[in-house]
Amino acid sequence: MSNNPFEDLSSYLESINASYESFTPALTHLAEDIQWFDSHAQVMQSLLESKELARASGADKAALNLLDEIHQNLLLRTQNWDDTRVSFDDLKISMIRYIGKDVASRGLLPPPLTPEARVALQDALEKMQDYVTRVSSSLPENSLGYLRYLIARCLDLLKGEDVDLIALRALSTQVAGTALGLGEHIQDENERNELWSHCGTIFRTWIIPMLTGAAGNIIAVGVQNMMLGS
Fold this sequence. Notes:
Blueprint: H1 5-19, H2 23-31, H3 36-56, H4 61-75, H5 90-105, H6 115-134, H7 141-159, H8 165-183, H9 189-206, H10 213-228
Helix pairs in contact: 1-2, 1-3, 1-5, 2-3, 3-4, 6-7, 6-9, 7-8, 8-9, 8-10
């Protein structure tokens, strides 16, 4: 997957069209070395991320309706997937790409993750994981448990060659927001500052390359909500 779910979705739909087969065989063709239902999950993930970003960008009703239509076609709730061929209009696929370009112009897509940034992000997450694994129980257990879960999810994403940057950005910024809140309960100043420095690495990965527009607002709101809940 790329850093642009609209492009991923468009490519998936074009591949389904090119198979000229019913839905299940088309998904099997798309899957290559994974199960067909896993390929369907990938398509749906790209679709759902596209819908979320389109709504966040203030896309008009026609754009949202188009994505809803694609959603319905991909579900085939009342039809046999083995017997029904699914195809998508080329013009609608082009419109999906156009929506993606508009979203990108508003700064809502994550920047490409350079090898250096990936190493720095993974290092920060692993050090945070090490800390929260051995930390004393004096910290709020609910927040601590949630932070462990978020970090593990991020590291799982980073293990893959094809990283879902939308999901990684969302989860890692939640890690930073949760850790910032937990830092207030850490008595040792050096430990607290070290944890917060890892938060800074995460924020620098995503926010500094795209401080303008709604992107910063989306991340800031997510972090603020996490801190208010801590």
